[in-house]
Write a structure and sequence with these properties.
There is one protein chain. The protein is mainly alpha-helical. The chain has four domains: 152 residues, HUPs (Rossmann fold, 3-Layer(aba) Sandwich); 148 residues, HUPs (Rossmann fold), CATH 3.40.50; 51 residues, Helicase, Ruva Protein, domain 3 (Orthogonal Bundle); 101 residues, Arc Repressor Mutant, subunit A, CATH 1.10.10.350. Helix content is 47%, strand content 10%. It has 19 helices and ten strands. A three-stranded parallel beta sheet has the order 1-2-3, covered by helices on one side. A three-stranded antiparallel beta sheet has the order 4-5-8. Strands 6-7 form a two-stranded antiparallel sheet. The N and C termini lie far apart (90 Å). The structure holds glutamic acid.
Length: 471
């Protein structure tokens, strides 16, 4: 079979049995980036033939995670369960050409063969009982590939180099089960072949499947795609990254307030390099991504590194563009703000000091709530009788200001410093606690200007009452 297809076509074929794991997301990202870099095509395929484990919720979760990551597809989503006729038609062809055969051996017989092979020191495998029987499609029969008995099958892996398999180690494996459902290896080949996929980048947990798939391509007389197997993502203890190490689903990072571009950047860097550059925008990745620099050794998922990269991405994003992503985080704290311009201004004060959108929302709360609470330690340390006079003078100054600009606020502070002989820090910290409830916040003039005259004065008055009551 001749496939004329010069354009790079990659694919992502998740099995919808749960959320999208960051390791799988990384495979999707590699394929997507390569397709975008090469101006090729990226195909999405849902491998849902395992009826017991596939769920609609998982399919929805995968779509949602991909959309959040900004991974779009040019073709699909295809569903394997809707393609059974296609798999069947190629089974017929393989039977006709003698490349496959029906087998009626019972599970018990197969078990006996496997045991026999193992007791004589070999690998458990099918012994070829039905290989030359030329059986027809009787009920209960499976279809097996007539695999070569000798020679080698080689994966020319673009990441790992050549991997050689002895054909005698592979048996006449099943292509189609007795209920008509294709096996993973068979369906994948038919799909990749008919979808004109010519570049297959996947996790190296599939390395053992690839020689079987190569044999199917050969049986169909179809050119092989380029294969590349990426090492698994590991946790800090060097075992496969799992729940024990932290959040593993892409959506968990979305919910924690990570930016999709940061996640994308982090996952790509986890298995690919471009010199020692760590920070990449999405477009930069599309411009420079290649298969040559996918690493051979496994990347370790380091949540701290991801967090700091996220902070870098937040800092590099225009406040305007953070307004919409921040809104759901504010909402989860009960804050709904219609005025996007106000949110933008709030972000301007916070975006150099927030590692996640969730942290930014928490730090933004004091701008929006009616009644702020004081952190206990902060109030104890700074809201003391010694600052009462300064706070009162400041209230007087603020009340006569026509324009509550940062400049005017600074002058008002200066006047109070002169009147009381206190240094700026001695006044600013209590004011900070009075306005924000905390000892750390954006610059005090910035915060005051943004809160506005009324709120600032009423919060300062509240602080003076608090001191009086305590005192
Ligand atoms: N459905 C398989 C998986 O999710 C696809 C593997 C492949 O890329 O061929 O692991």
């Amino acid at each position: 079979m001749e496939i004329k297809n010069e354009m790079i076509v990659t694919r992502f074929p998740p099995s919808p049995t749960g959320y999208l794991h960051v390791g799988n997301a990384r495979t999707a990202i590699f394929n997507w980036l390569y397709a975008r870099h090469m101006k090729g095509k990226f195909v999405l395929r849902i491998e849902d033939t395992d009826a017991k484990r596939s769920t609609q919720e998982a399919i929805d979760a995968i779509f949602e995670a991909l959309e959040w990551l900004g991974i779009d597809w040019d073709e699909g989503p295809y569903y394997q369960t809707q393609r059974l006729e296609i798999y069947n038609s190629y089974i017929e062809r393989l039977i006709e050409t003698g490349e496959a055969y029906y087998c009626t051996c019972s599970p018990e017989e197969i078990e006996t063969m496997r045991q026999k092979a193992m007791t004589s020191g070999g690998k458990p495998k099918y012994d070829g009982t039905c290989r030359n029987k030329e059986l027809s499609n009787i009920e209960g029969a499976v279809v097996r590939l007539k695999a070569p008995l000798s020679g080698t099958t080689i994966i020319e892996d673009v990441i790992k180099g050549n991997i050689v398999f002895q054909n005698e180690e592979l048996d006449d494996f099943i292509l189609c089960r007795s209920d008509g459902i294709p096996t993973y290896n068979y369906a994948v080949v038919i799909d990749d072949m008919t979808m004109l996929v010519n570049t297959v980048i996947r996790g190296d947990d599939h390395v053992m499947n690839t020689p079987k798939q190569i044999l199917i391509y050969k049986a169909l007389d179809c050119p092989l795609p380029v294969f590349g197997h990426v090492p698994m993502v590991l946790g800090t203890d060097k075992s496969r990254f799992s729940k024990r190490h932290g959040a593993v689903s892409v959506s968990a990072y979305k919910d924690m307030g990570y930016l999709p571009d940061a996640m994308l950047n982090y996952l790509v860097r986890l298995g690919w390099s471009h010199g020692d550059q760590e920070f990449f925008t999405r477009q930069e990745l599309i411009d420079v991504f290649d298969l040559e620099h996918i690493g051979r050794s496994a990347g370790v998922f380091d949540p701290e590194k991801l967090l700091s990269l996220n902070a870098d991405h937040i800092r590099a994003t225009l406040p305007d563009e953070l307004v919409a992503p921040l809104k759901p985080f504010l909402k989860s704290h009960g804050i709904e703000v219609k005025d996007s311009d106000l949110i933008k201004k709030v972000i301007e004060t916070l975006h150099a000091r927030s590692k996640t959108l969730e942290e930014m929302a928490e730090n933004a709360l004091f701008y929006f709530v009616d009644d702020i609470g004081y952190e206990e330690k902060a109030a104890k340390k700074f809201l003391k009788p010694a600052v009462l006079e300064a706070l009162r003078l400041l209230i007087d100054q603020f009340e006569i200001l026509d324009n509550f600009s940062e400049e005017n606020l600074e002058s008002a502070f200066k006047a109070v410093m002169d009147q009381t002989g206190l240094k700026l820090g001695k006044i600013a910290q209590p004011v900070r606690v009075a306005l924000t409830g905390k000892t750390a916040s954006p610059g005090i003039f910035e915060v005051s200007a943004l809160l506005g005259q009324d709120k600032v004065i009423s919060r300062l008055k509240k602080a003076t009452r608090y001191i009086e009551d305590k005192g």
